[in-house]
Amino acid sequence: MIRSETxxxxxxxxxxxxxxxxxxxxxHSILLKWPELRFSVSCTTRSPRGDEAQGKDYHFxxxxxxxxxxxxxxxxxxxxxxxAYYGTDGKRVSEWLLEGFDVLLDIDVQGARQVVCHYPLxxxxxxMPPSLEELEQRLRERDSDAPExxxxxLRAALDEIREAPWYEFLIVNDTREEAIADLEGIIxxxxxxxxxxxxxxxxxxxxxxx
Length: 210
Ligand code: 5GP
Known about the structure:
Elements: E1 12-16, H1 23-33, E2 38-39, E3 43-44, E4 59-60, H2 63-71, E5 75-81, E6 84-89, H3 90-98, E7 103-106, H4 109-118, E8 123-128, H5 132-141, H6 147-162, E9 169-172, H7 176-191, H8 194-209
Parallel strand pairs: 1-7, 1-8, 2-7, 3-4, 8-9
Antiparallel strand pairs: 3-6, 5-6
Helix pairs in contact: 1-7, 5-6
Bound molecules: guanosine-5'-monophosphate (5GP).
The site of guanosine-5'-monophosphate has 14 residues, from strand 5, strand 6 and helix 4.
């Protein structure tokens, strides 16, 4: 691709948080509001839950296919979470960024660290549940998860929350509307950062000189 002087690459927004913190709803809401954002559908070796659809919620693939993907460098990042593999397709993400699209990734802490190594300008957002009691309640309401899985996810949630201070932005998902407004605010602010806008200034001054 030939990149003009005014080309600007998109930004990655990494969204993490324990299962049940409400990341998925938050991401769906923001994608409805801002259709120009791109969401990277992850690959996973876990089985679909509830009405999850192939290619929409996840690309559900076999462990063999996933491991082959690791060997071939298919993933921008990957991690084992709750005993299953999860990973982000690197080619898709880099194409979107080059085309100027901002990309949302819903990934765990291990993946977030890997993404920041590859893309130091990636912005990181952690979504917190309002309380542990609320988190437990939300996990129990997912009737497709067996009780022992809920316990596993609760323990994992605490491990994730310990990592929250590493993230640049924290959203407490108490009321949905406020959480959506917070995420919108973060994305807007990052888009206005001088690193993102430098090319506007440059091209304006360039025209003034002409
Ligand atoms: P769930 O099975 O509840 O959909 O997701 C479990 C965890 O895996 C969540 O914390 C989610 O953010 C994380 N996850 C989903 N996709 C990816 C991915 O591609 N990479 C990594 N590292 N984590 C992921």
